């Protein structure tokens, strides 16, 4: 009896294969490599600054809101996939004299429009704005007047 | 018979992985370890979906849960005020009632599993001759059309509600 | 699906979209509110938004077809009955009343508040019409998730805590329910309510169906806050904004009960030997009434008291489902409408209390003499909540219990008699805590010299609800006629 694999099962096999390949090489090197640690080797950066504190800093809540928006639009995207492959189906369109295509198009447009309003909402409410550092514009008061530069520019054009 | 064996073997492998990682979420005291164990749970569940020919659901699982929800949970962990370099620890309380309730539920499921699941006749395959994902797409546009549009409204509501609750804190500062 | 069927399917789908006009108006209106919130940020923005919401509600009620074509539409996904428009009008009225609450200024300042209130309304519209389990689930989640957000809208630490608690319990119960629904799908091969019984009948062994129904029911019981799935409700009620609580203590419960009734009716049509769900529901109803009423006795906080009271009332409402006759359904809806009116009135008063920073019932001492009109209205409403004449609460309880009695006479199952007797006993118990408020209002005196103000609007609002409750008693047949 032959085994019939669907495309996704092939992908799964590839994933397992990739996992084994990576883990295999890591494990092999872990088994073979010499282990002679010293203090210098164990620091985060072998050369350069000694880090202070931990890597677990507190996050800005803005990351969270953006991740939230991302998840919701990703969910929307998932609804689009199955729609996209049947929306232009010629067989169905011919069967229903074009009604199918119109229906699918109008409904999905509504779906996207409703969710696009969500984007407008987070944008309008300023949830996507980042706290920008104030950039100080420094004015250099040069003794050389601007017109001199322009004269030079025109001269050697 | 070999084909069945392969599928069942894979199912038990991934199901076992899911259960073990879920138990490790429960047992682990470090909340960050728990979140990483959740990746394994989601992955093995996705694998089970793919084995059972529900490819679209499997891909959905990977995209939404691993790609989205987990990132969100990670942010959630990192956003909490308590992080000051120390580990975030969790603890268990009221173990006895929880264990009793769990055992009760397990008993209910076990006694049900003694009888064979009478799977319904789903009728012959659709005459329209479509793949799984295409069938889902057609169903979205026909039978579940209202549910689909309502989902859009639901998602918008969730977005507005969640963004508002999460964002109401930094709105005041300005 | 056959090819020829597909064409007919698509054609009916396109042709029957007009049936959804009220829902579409509501969606368009709520989207308009979001845009309004983004564009208009003037000084009177809160008032403008509230007015706009009322306009949307008015437009929705105009769009409701008062005499609908009964039966399923959109290929059996949704269905209308004779009650559907009345229920929709009732829901719209409740929503409008809730928007007029005095203390909701904090909430009204944010544009999202009115939008979320409308989303609850939209969810209930779909819940009472849904004939498809998936649509039912999506509509239920729309209502539930909106409720989680609304609870946190008081912007206090307590509110967020209650919201999280509610969310965790809710997510768990949704998960269980979804599992049950998927098992039902596997057993019956269909998500359409109409097709489920005949497909279930193909298999004779009910074990799995019992499990599926149990899981599904647990989800529903949680949303109805029946004992022992009620733990979230007192905390949520206490911490949430009063206006939102007044809404989510009535609308979702009534809508879910309507769906639940339809679903249990289906169970009766199958020949499969199921577990005795009427018996299980009776136990839950008795438990809810007892736990709700006995816990309410000990509460001094007005909102917590109302939370337990709503648990008890949910138990009473469940009797309509247990009875399962057309008369029982009628009685249940009658009770739901009366309960909604009473609830809106009492919560309005609690909202006024909160505005004046009164939390406990004992703080009310002597206020009734200061404001006799308010005191009298409150007394009427509370007497109605107990279920004494001459109020609508009495007629409602009379109808519910007489429908139960009818069924008992026919089937002579002893648990129905227990339900009957203990239900009436519980009405007597509830007398003690409901009348605590009039007792404090009129009979207790206080030394406090604090003066409060009651606006004319508040008096009119309370008087309207009290008069409605009285009117329902004297013209009960009118309401019954409207419902059926």
UniProtKB/TrEMBL annotation, chain A:
Family: Belongs to the complex I subunit 3 family.
Predominant localisation class: membrane
EC number per UniProt: 7.1.1.-
Any GO CC annotation of this UniProt entry: plasma membrane
Protein task: NDH-1 shuttles electrons from NADH, via FMN and iron-sulfur (Fe-S) centers, to quinones in the respiratory chain. The immediate electron acceptor for the enzyme in this species is believed to be a menaquinone. Couples the redox reaction to proton translocation (for every two electrons transferred, four hydrogen ions are translocated across the cytoplasmic membrane), and thus conserves the redox energy in a proton gradient.
GO molecular function, one term: NADH dehydrogenase (ubiquinone) activity
Protein name as catalogued: NADH-quinone oxidoreductase subunit A
Gene symbol of the encoding locus: nuoA
Listed transmembrane segments: 6-32, 63-88, 100-123
Cell compartments where the protein resides: Cell membrane; Membrane
Keywords from the UniProt entry: Cell membrane, Membrane, NAD, Quinone, Translocase, Transmembrane, Transmembrane helix, Transport
Bilayer topology: Multi-pass membrane protein
Catalytic activity: a quinone + NADH + 5 H(+)(in) = a quinol + NAD(+) + 4 H(+)(out)
Subunit structure as annotated in this protein's UniProt entry: NDH-1 is composed of 14 different subunits. Subunits NuoA, H, J, K, L, M, N constitute the membrane sector of the complex.
Transport listed as a keyword: yes
Source organism (scientific name): Reichenbachiella agariperforans
HAMAP family: NDH1_NuoA
TrEMBL record, chain B:
Keyword Transmembrane: yes
Source organism, top-level taxon: Bacteria
Localization per Swiss-Prot or TrEMBL: Cell membrane
EC main group: translocase
Listed GO MF terms: NADH dehydrogenase (ubiquinone) activity; quinone binding
Pfam families: Oxidored_q3 (PF00499)
UniProt entry keywords in alphabetical sequence: Cell membrane, Membrane, NAD, Quinone, Transmembrane, Transmembrane helix
EC number: 7.1.1.-
Membrane topology: Multi-pass membrane protein
Chief location: membrane
Membrane-spanning ranges: 6-26, 31-50, 62-83, 95-113, 145-166
GO CC annotations on file: plasma membrane
Reaction it catalyzes: a quinone + NADH + 5 H(+)(in) = a quinol + NAD(+) + 4 H(+)(out)
Functional description taken from the UniProt entry: NDH-1 shuttles electrons from NADH, via FMN and iron-sulfur (Fe-S) centers, to quinones in the respiratory chain. Couples the redox reaction to proton translocation (for every two electrons transferred, four hydrogen ions are translocated across the cytoplasmic membrane), and thus conserves the redox energy in a proton gradient.
Family to which this protein belongs: Belongs to the complex I subunit 6 family.
Protein name, UniProt field: NADH-quinone oxidoreductase subunit J
Species of provenance: Reichenbachiella agariperforans
Organism ancestry: Bacteria, Pseudomonadati, Bacteroidota, Cytophagia, Cytophagales
TrEMBL record, chain C:
Topology term for the membrane: Multi-pass membrane protein
Keywords assigned: Cell membrane, Membrane, NAD, Quinone, Translocase, Transmembrane, Transmembrane helix, Transport
Documented EC number(s): 7.1.1.-
Enzyme class: translocase
InterPro entries the record matches: NADH-Q_OxRdtase_suN/2, NADH_UbQ_OxRdtase, ND/Mrp_TM
Catalytic activity, as annotated: a quinone + NADH + 5 H(+)(in) = a quinol + NAD(+) + 4 H(+)(out)
An annotated GO cellular component: endomembrane system
Transmembrane segment boundaries: 20-39, 51-69, 81-101, 113-130, 136-155, 167-188, 208-231, 243-263, 275-294, 306-327, 333-350, 371-395, 415-435, 456-476
One Gene Ontology biological process: ATP synthesis coupled electron transport
Subcellular location: Cell membrane; Endomembrane system; Membrane
Residue stretches making up the NADH:quinone oxidoreductase/Mrp antiporter transmembrane domain: 130-409
Top-level taxon of the source organism: Bacteria
Molecular function as annotated in GO: NADH dehydrogenase (quinone) (non-electrogenic) activity; NADH dehydrogenase (ubiquinone) activity; quinone binding
Record-stated family: Belongs to the complex I subunit 2 family.
Protein task: NDH-1 shuttles electrons from NADH, via FMN and iron-sulfur (Fe-S) centers, to quinones in the respiratory chain. The immediate electron acceptor for the enzyme in this species is believed to be a menaquinone. Couples the redox reaction to proton translocation (for every two electrons transferred, four hydrogen ions are translocated across the cytoplasmic membrane), and thus conserves the redox energy in a proton gradient.
Subunit structure, as described in the record: NDH-1 is composed of 14 different subunits. Subunits NuoA, H, J, K, L, M, N constitute the membrane sector of the complex.
Name of this chain's protein: NADH-quinone oxidoreductase subunit N
Source organism per UniProt: Reichenbachiella agariperforans
């Amino acid at each position: 009896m032959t085994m019939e694999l669907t495309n996704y099962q092939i992908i799964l096999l590839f994933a397992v294969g990739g996992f084994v390949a990576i883990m295999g090489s890591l494990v092999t090197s872990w088994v073979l490599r010499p282990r002679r640690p010293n203090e210098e080797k164990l620091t985060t950066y072998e050369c350069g600054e000694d880090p202070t504190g931990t890597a677990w800093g507190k996050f800005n809540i803005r990351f969270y809101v953006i991740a939230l928006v991302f998840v919701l639009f990703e969910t929307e995207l998932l609804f689009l996939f199955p729609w996209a492959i049947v929306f232009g189906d010629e067989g169905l369109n011919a069967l229903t004299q074009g009604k199918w295509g119109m229906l699918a198009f109008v409904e999905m447009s509504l779906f996207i429009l409703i969710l696009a309003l969500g984007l407008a909402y987070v944008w309008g409410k300023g949830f996507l704005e980042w706290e920008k550092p104030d950039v100080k514009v420094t004015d250099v008061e040069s003794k050389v007047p601007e017109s001199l530069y322009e004269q030079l520019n025109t001269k050697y054009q | 018979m070999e084909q069945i064996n392969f599928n069942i073997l894979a199912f038990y492998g991934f199901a076992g992985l899911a259960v073990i990682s879920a138990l490790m979420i429960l047992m682990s005291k470090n909340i960050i370890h728990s979140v990483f164990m959740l990746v394994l749970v989601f992955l093995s569940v996705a694998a089970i979906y793919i084995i059972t020919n529900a490819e679209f659901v499997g891909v959905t699982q990977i995209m939404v849960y691993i790609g989205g929800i987990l990132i969100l949970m990670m942010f959630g962990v990192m956003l909490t005020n308590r992080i000051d370099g120390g580990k975030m620890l969790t603890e268990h309380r009221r173990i006895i009632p929880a264990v009793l309730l769990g055992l009760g539920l397990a008993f209910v499921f076990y006694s049900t599993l003694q009888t064979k699941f009478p799977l319904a006749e789903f009728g012959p395959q659709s005459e329209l001759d479509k793949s799984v994902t295409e069938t889902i797409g057609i169903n979205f546009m026909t039978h579940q059309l209202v549910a689909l549009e309502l989902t859009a409204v639901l998602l918008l509501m969730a977005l507005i509600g969640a963004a508002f609750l999460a964002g109401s804190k930094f709105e005041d500062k300005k | 699906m056959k090819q020829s069927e597909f064409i007919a399917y698509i054609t009916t789908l396109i042709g029957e979209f007009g049936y959804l006009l009220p829902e579409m108006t509501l969606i368009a209106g709520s989207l308009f509110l979001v845009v309004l919130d983004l564009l208009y940020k003037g000084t009177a923005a809160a008032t403008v938004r509230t007015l706009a919401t009322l306009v949307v509600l008015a437009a929705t009620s105009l769009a409701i077809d008062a005499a609908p074509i009964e039966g399923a539409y959109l290929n059996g996904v949704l269905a209308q009955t004779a009650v559907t428009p009345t229920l929709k009008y009732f829901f719209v009225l409740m929503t409008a009343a809730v928007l007029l609450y005095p203390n909701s200024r904090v909430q009204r300042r944010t544009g999202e508040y009115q939008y979320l209130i409308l989303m609850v309304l939209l969810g209930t519209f779909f819940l009472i019409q849904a004939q498809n389990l998936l649509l039912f689930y999506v509509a239920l989640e729309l209502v539930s998730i909106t409720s989680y957000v609304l609870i946190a809208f008081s912007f206090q630490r307590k509110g967020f805590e209650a919201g999280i608690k509610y969310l965790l319990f809710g997510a768990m119960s949704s998960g269980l329910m979804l599992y049950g629904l998927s098992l039902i799908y596997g057993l019956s091969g269909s998500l359409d309510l109409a097709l489920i019984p005949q497909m279930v009948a193909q298999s004779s062994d009910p074990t799995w169906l019992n499990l599926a129904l149990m899981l599904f029911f647990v989800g529903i019981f949680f949303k109805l806050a029946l004992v022992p799935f009620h733990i979230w409700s007192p905390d949520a009620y206490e911490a949430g904004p009063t206006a939102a609580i007044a809404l989510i203590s009535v609308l979702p419960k009534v809508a879910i009960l309507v769906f639940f009734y339809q679903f249990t009716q289906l169970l009766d049509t199958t020949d499969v030997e199921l577990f005795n769900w009427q018996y299980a529901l009776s136990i839950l109803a008795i438990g809810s009434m007892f736990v709700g009423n006995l816990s309410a006795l000990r509460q001094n906080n007005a909102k917590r008291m109302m939370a337990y009271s709503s648990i008890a009332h949910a138990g009473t409402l469940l009797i309509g489902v247990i009875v399962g006759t057309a008369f029982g359904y009628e009685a249940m809806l009658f009770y739901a409408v009366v309960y909604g009116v009473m609830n809106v009135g009492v919560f309005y008063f609690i909202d006024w209390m909160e505005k004046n920073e009164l939390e406990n019932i004992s703080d009310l001492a002597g206020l009734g003499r200061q404001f006799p009109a308010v005191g009298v209205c409150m007394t009427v409403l509370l007497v109605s909540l107990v279920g004494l004449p001459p109020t609508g609460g009495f007629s409602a309880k009379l109808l519910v219990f007489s429908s139960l009695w009818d069924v008992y006479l026919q089937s002579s199952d002893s648990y129905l008699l227990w339900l009957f007797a203990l239900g009436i006993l519980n009405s007597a118990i509830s007398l003690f805590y409901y009348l605590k408020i009039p007792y404090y209002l009129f009979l207790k005196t206080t030394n406090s010299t604090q003066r409060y103000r009651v606006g004319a609007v508040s008096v009119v609002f309370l008087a309207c609800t009290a008069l409605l409750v009285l009117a329902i008693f004297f013209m009960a047949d009118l309401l019954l006629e409207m419902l059926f």
